[in-house]
Amino acid sequence: MRAPPLLPEETLYRVLRLARFNGMSVLAIAGFFSLVSAAGKDVPGAIIGVLVAGAGALELHGVSLLRNGYSRGTSWLVWSQLYLLVVVLIYVALRLNHVDIEPMRQILTDEQRETIATSGLSEDQFLRTVYTVSAAVFGIVTFFYQGGMALYYHRRRAAITQALAEPPEPRED
Question: Domain containing 51: what range?
Fold first, then answer.
């Protein structure tokens, strides 16, 4: 048996709660890594961090619009996810076109080097494979997560618009 659909007000509440949490998380984490990258003089990393943090700011702007009764805030939520998806996929493409295995080589232990040697691959081949697979998985996970979030927000647009059109009912606390 299927549960009845949520009331538009409940849908709005859930979207606001999720979008606020997601936007704050993206903004805080990306902002932190952007600062770390800037401190380490990693200019491309700092730029990507700022661009990703921007997606969190866009999402929070959408939350603010919805809280103030503007249904166009839903579009901001959807576009923030698509913007973040594009930024991450560009980052992954850049990383795949400019493979840098030196930082990975520096953290290998002697035991790991022995294991790699017995695998039949050279250390460079192994590290390139790990680098490529990691970047590809990151891109794929981002595609499904951000795409799913955009779809989630988009599918709730009608309920959000309806909830914002109706006068709020007083809550008993």
Answer: 8-165
